[in-house]
Amino acid sequence: MSRFVQVAVPLGVRKTFAYSVPVALRNRVGVGARVLVPFGRKWLTGFVVSGSDRPPEGNFRLRPVRRVLDPAAPIPVSLVRTGVWISDYYFTPPGSALHAMMPAGTAVAETQKLTLGGKFREMLLAGLRPAGLGPSEEKILDLLAERGSMTCAELVAAGAARGAAGLVDSMIAGGLLEYGDIGTQPRVRVKEVLGIRACTATGDAEVKLTTAQARLLAAVRQTGGAVPLSRVLGRAAAGRAVAKALEGKGLVEILPLAVERLPADLAEQSKRKNVEFTAAQRGVFEQLRQLSAAGKAARCLLHGVTGSGKTEIYLRLISEGLERGESAILLVPEIGLTPLLSRIALSHFPNRVAMLHSGMSRGERHDQWMRIRRGEAPVVVGTRSAVFAPLECPRLIIIDEEQDASYKQEETPCYHAREVAWQRVQGSSGILLMGSATPAVETYFLTRGGGDMALLRLPERVEARPMAEVEVVDMGVEFQRHGKKTVISQRLRTELEDRLQRREQSIVLLNRRGYSRSLLCRSCGHHFSCPDCSISMTYHQLEARLICHYCGRECDTPTECAECGGAFIYFVGVGTEQLESLLREMFPQARIARLDRDSTRRKGSLSRILLDFGQGKLDILVGTQMLAKGHDFPNVTLVGVVSADAGLSFPDFRSAERTFQLLTQVAGRAGRGDIPGLVVIQSFYPDHYALKYARGQDYEGFYEKEIEYRRLMGYPPFHRLVQVLVSDKDRHRGLNIGEKLAAALRHVIRERRAGGFIRVLGPAPAPLEKLRGQYRFQVLLKCRGEAGPVPVLRETFALLGGKKVPLKNVHVDVDPLSLM
Questions:
Q1: pTM for this structure?
Q2: How far apart are CA 95 and CA 8, in angstroms?
């Protein structure tokens, strides 16, 4: 029953705002409540983060909370604390952090209606009008007199005035207008259909029933409760008129009925398999049970080779937690992996699993979120944002393939699911379990030399299956033998033919979409680049268009060069679309499909392709990194990797790590059944250490090499990074803001005497200097582990704000995973 509350609003402000709570609302306003509050001339939806009986210090007038938007607080108190931590740790607006926790489409659209002021209404009734009104003011008053109430946007649309907002303010001050009701309707709500249920019979109503009425009444009574009207009408072969007649007799009631929008993947359930633990699995499981029984928060890394049985350990841990009345979250990196795991989880925990990911419709996501909040689904399976599932007190959070970059959000709020999960289980004294065959270097570092993370190992595959044999083909030698147009090496082609003859399956990975990665004029060397981004446009043969994979711009494929007018247009590089076409020409009898973002745009297509491949309806699956992680296809005995070293050319210190992880993960898709697997990696740099250690699937060797490089260069985990990115349509203005920002950071660091701990680099053009029409300049902070960057950022932004430096297009990413 707080008299005053701090509210986080969904704007780019890194603080909360104080409001008073009217007496009538005090029983309903608590931490986590969603409220409607005035903010300037607007009404905003905010989240209550704290309450108090004492007003905040300062000489200012508090405005009251206008409305509470939900019957109960939609966000648990523990999750609100996590949102506040995200705001502090990642230097992000608290309103943005809390807004990200709600399912898409549930945000309330607030529209303030305008009506005629009481004074003017009296004049109008008396047949009078104020003197000195302009044409626009006359138009506004006439429209409101005719329609009763309108929003400011509706007045503009009706042609009242371009500057209606300014006019409205002066007319309100003069008493001509006043604010009326506020419309608060979310885009996504509970779905309702007409339902029907039986009522207690009275008198002789049933004696005078027709045959159709008696049949429908019997069908309704068999259901034992309210059911959708359309379903029972179909079962009884009756029309709506029959139902209406029964309602008129008082025998049934027709009423609105809430129905759940169930994702198709939750409607399908796999058969449960009883799996016996290996000795290694049993040892790991017992260690985790002991940690859980200790009742203290703990985080563990489960380092297990591909196919070592990590998923079965996850499921057993969840099962034991459910027996104790606890809840769990299982995070996966790809939407493509979620349906598979959700079906496996369903087979173990029927009717107790919810799913959350962006591939679901807004309605489906809303209904799943509500099931979790009501406590009906204690097990949640999903991608990054599922870490915000509204469980009251999750005791177990599992992050599968923890090394995956998709767990880091690059837009505001720039959180990492791994760090958010650790905050949540610390609050519940739970376990954070991270599984990977190729852990992130920063994560593995915490298991060595004084880190606070336990390391658990699964060094062998289940049933003692051997790891796949890996061969590296030197494409430089291949070009000398077979010409520069060679895409599929002779070695890989021979192995593909062999698998087709043996009726085994193959995966071919190329981590580049489209048909050709760029177009080049052979007359003058001009590259066909996106005018809005500093990147080449990719040719897509199916659409016969050039497409920018960053901003989505499309254009027709040119027939001549825009620079010199030459007609010698040359397609450079190979994408998955062209690779699929080449394989179809090589093996016309083979059943081939492609799995990438282009082939899976239609809803359900991703699941269908994976299901067809899993059922043996396809021989070869071509795709991008979507194929590399988590999939278990026992009949796959060959994996081919084309352009394995393409990622090594990226100007990013993590490029070697990402290449090693991708190659090791995709190699793990081969030989997961009874037949040993083979991996053929094609590369121009076969001696690079990332490929050398991937060939031996030697994570320890790679880690020792990589950690020494990180130590020498001062990269994570030895230093923390902060990327401050300035974007502007005007290059000179963007650079100028970047220079002022860097100068202010250096000034604050000197004042705080933190120069020995925090170093400022830049401003410099970002590797992708232009993106979506904006020039981009980055300032990097390199901070030693003990130096927190947020106090410096907070003071710097306050200093620049006081000098009126425009910071609207300045983006801060604490602990970035990509510097592109």
A1: 0.84
A2: 4
